[in-house]
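Hello again, I could really use a second opinion on something today. Take your time with it, there's no hurry, and the full record follows here:

___
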Amino acid sequence: MPIRSAAFALALATVAPASVAQAKSKLEFAYVVLGSQGAVARAVYTDATTCPSLALASQSGKSTQPMTVRALPDASDKKPPFPVLVCELLIPAGTTAAAIGKQKLPLPPDTLAAVAVIGDTGCRLKADKDADHDDEGKFQDCDSKSAWPFSTLAKNVAKHKPQLLVHVGDYIYRESPCPKGDKGCKGSPYGDNWDTWKADFFKPAAPLLAAAPWIATRGNHEICTRAGDGFVLFLDPRLATDQKPPACGALLDPLTVTVGSQQFIMLDSSNAPDECPDSGCDTKTSNAPECPKPGCSAKAYADQFAAMKPTDGAWLVSHRPVWGFKNKSQLNATLQAALGQWNGKLPPGFTLAVAGHIHIWETLSFSDQRSPQFVIGNGGTSLAHAIKGKLNGKEIGGTTVSSSRSASKWGFTIFTPTKQAATWTATYYSTKGNDKFTCTVQPTAVSCP
């Protein structure tokens, strides 16, 4: 497999049905997880209990190997949340191609030439105020491509033929039933179940899932009290034990993935409160289930940063930005406090931080020349209010913003490496794929027109 990894990433592809024991079985989706063990292929079936075989190719020839059960269909009640069979297989090192039936699964390249980044993609159905985003209840029109453009966005990202897709988290936003009389979301599924995951993520993302391997980051919408079970079942790349996926946890270990020569280190910031580091989680000031143990302490994240071993030019991939602005209010105090031993900067080796969480597009450079921050949370869910004017001169995390740019429209970003080490171009595209503007990304600053 042309990838070196000390943890995990994700590649997904929609495929045609393969043969399993049940005549009525249907292959819904197949995907490949790239981790410390190598590449793990997965497949999701309905009306099946027996896993198929995977066709493999390498320089030594062709072979087939049976997939093993990751999770059997849930039969806990009359309407179980996940009535699907999930299969997986650790692909042998040196594999150059993998397929189920006639459909090939995209594998990471030897040389990385294009990375697409999207985030916060689901259709928002929320009856009450979102404590994490401080937003009132909202209901998007999930049946309208103009009101919820994720499917259009996915098709147009795929047209750019990225070699890697980075999703910075928050896949599931359908948390409440559609209000009576609301034609825009009438009949929509909601909650952490297969119907919701299929409607909010897998189905609209199908063209993009088939186009490139994925790095998938857990967002705060996928914590254990929200859509955590579905995330663990479908997107968490850790292998199953005794036909059971790993348990959902408040804080996952960092994941290190190298594609070609580019290293990505994924920090699970899904539970990192945007405020109150080391002040304890009080239900009067924060949502207690969102808080990592112990409380809002930044120590757990400081320990994770200390354990990372970034190589020169590494990206930090996280759902919550280490440094970000929403309506000119700054985020994330917990992660900033965790960087105290490096004087507020990322550990040596990192040259870029990429995140989502704030529902806008934003890039920040800093006066002390720490690693720049991209916020790419404009993948389809309800947008945050536009930031008026520049953020230049604003204080955040012990430094000030030296240059910035923001956009409050849906879209995606394509990163392309240059010949200069650790330097990229980042092109912001609208939902329909129109070229909007291109930024130059250097290890200490981003320059946008």
